[in-house]
Amino acid sequence: MSALQSWLPMIIKACYFIAAFLFIYGLKRMGSPRTARRGIVQAGIGMVVATVATFFMPDMHNYLLMLVAIAIGGGLAWWTGQRVAMTDMPQMVALYNGMGGGSAAAIGAVELYKAGAGSLVVAPVPASLAVAGGIIGAVAFSGSMIAFAKLQGWLDRRFLWPGQNPLNGLLLLAVLGLGGWLVVAPDQGVLIAFFALALLLGVLMTLPIGGADMPVVISLYNALTGLAVAFEGFVLDNEAMIIAGTVVGAAGTLLTQLMAKAMNRPLSNVLFAGIAASGSGGDIDGEQKPIDAADAASLMAWAERVVVVPGYGMAVAQAQHKLWEFCQGLMARGVKVKFAIHPVAGRMPGHMNVLLAEAGVPYDLIVDMDDINPEFKNTDVALVIGANDVVNPVARTDPASPIYGMPILDVDQARNVIIIKRGKGRGFAGIENALFYGENARLLYGDGNAVAGDLAAELKQLDG
């Protein structure tokens, strides 16, 4: 045995350690918009290091298949990354997350299949971890695919049926029972039934969940994918998978808890009850009062403080660039402009931040909900574009409302509120927004991108 061969296992483990450090360091850098881009690159370098090191593992084979898989996956990722619009990024995240869970499940399936074929003897502990990773990965895969379909608009409603929670409970017990069977006596027939039921469980768990809860669901399945990868890392004795999966699982779990807290709802309520897509709200006194672009631009041009509240409607209209152009015009007149971000605005965590950063909005103008809420009382104009449920004051005032108790942006406390809306539709929670009927509120109807352009044009006319 050559000196290099004797040192190779230690070199591989050192590469995994470096990769793990880059994963964690990159994740930390992603915590700030100023360093997020470099953090992503650093974590990506870590993945390259871990992947290359894996090629030198003892008894590694099928190099051609590995290279072909990397080429296909990398090519598709590059192509979609270049072509997918920012408005479609949430479903892209759900799709890629599902692929991670599916990959972890596939690893467990292969190891358990080998055991069932008699070509591999699996000890009880690794077999248990393979089963656990298989269940979690399969649920994350099929659940993420349903989340993707919902976000893509292919499944635009919730699917409810009597006894769905007891049915899912029985299905989970069946999956666990088959998993126990595989640990004790691996069998290929049982293996097929095990994964079929696990995939079905992920589908049935996700179908009843409404679109308003998709950010929480995506975050949850991200955590499950990380956990599945960590379990399968133990099965393969691969330190990089263990560390990377643990980091992803921990970060996803923390984010899921924060998202649920931002909606003031326990995770069990999201998974087993949810906000009804056809939820109803009580009658609201008053009427919606329209305003045109010229008057809205004048009101904001002579204001001292303006707070912009973006939502998914802005993403759909791709209005962030025109909106920022208008805000730059306001700032040139001496108006103090800030952007208020609700934790669950959009379809995934950080959705609005990404869109505003794409338009070139400076990071120091983007303010989180807890920091901006005390400022609304001193705000001359709050401009809402595409946001609905996250600015609905019934969350504070109506115990009968399905969103009661959810922390919201206190837009209604501003002196004037202008809401850009395409029509008179309701938000994902399916309830009427009391903000739109307030005495201080005016509705500016039209496509978000076109209206933002009109505001910018009217502002230029005021400047002469």
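Second entry:
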Amino acid sequence: MRLLIVEDEKRLALSLAKGLTAEGYAVDVVHDGLEGLHRAGEGVYDLVILDIMLPGMNGYRVCAALRAAGHDVPILMLTAKDGEYDEAEGLDTGADDYLTKPFSYVVLVARVKALLRRRGTAGASPVRVVGDLKVDTAARRVFLTEREITLTAKEFSVLEQLVVRAGEVVSKSDILEHVWDFAYEGDPNIVEVYVSTLRRKLGAHLIKTVRGAGYRLEAG
């Protein structure tokens, strides 16, 4: 999953990015409302964490512009203000949730996971089953023939991209886009490294290589 943080308090933004990266998310950070609107408008993000008081364009206007353009990306708004009017205004512009500073990092992570779960499952179970493989995308746990398999955060994120589209071909660029952040300039073959590790842990038969197109997760 790839997240965008639009927050002009640089220390807070980088702290949140570091923590969310450790949770297994790819995280991009911008500090200006106009840049945030441009990035979010590209449509590559699974969730946007959006401050209200921003230079260039405030969070209310960024949110309203995204919704007016038809973008349905979940938006979690942050503000130093505290009052029902501010919350109502934020939600009226199309935000999905609202968090007042100062907030607990644990609460923020819980809100992020809830919003992603709400969007990703659309009312269905967060548990995906492919053959003997069972992946709980909410609890981030993986089982193979009822035996729990330990994965790193990045390994799980790569597997998640495959399991939510089980049976479909997922390109290497799609995986890079959602698992590694915008600033990643390393070898794109890093995806192959993680797929190889997943095959070693889960069985080579589960992840098929579709030459020139990407990878497909199937029961085998």
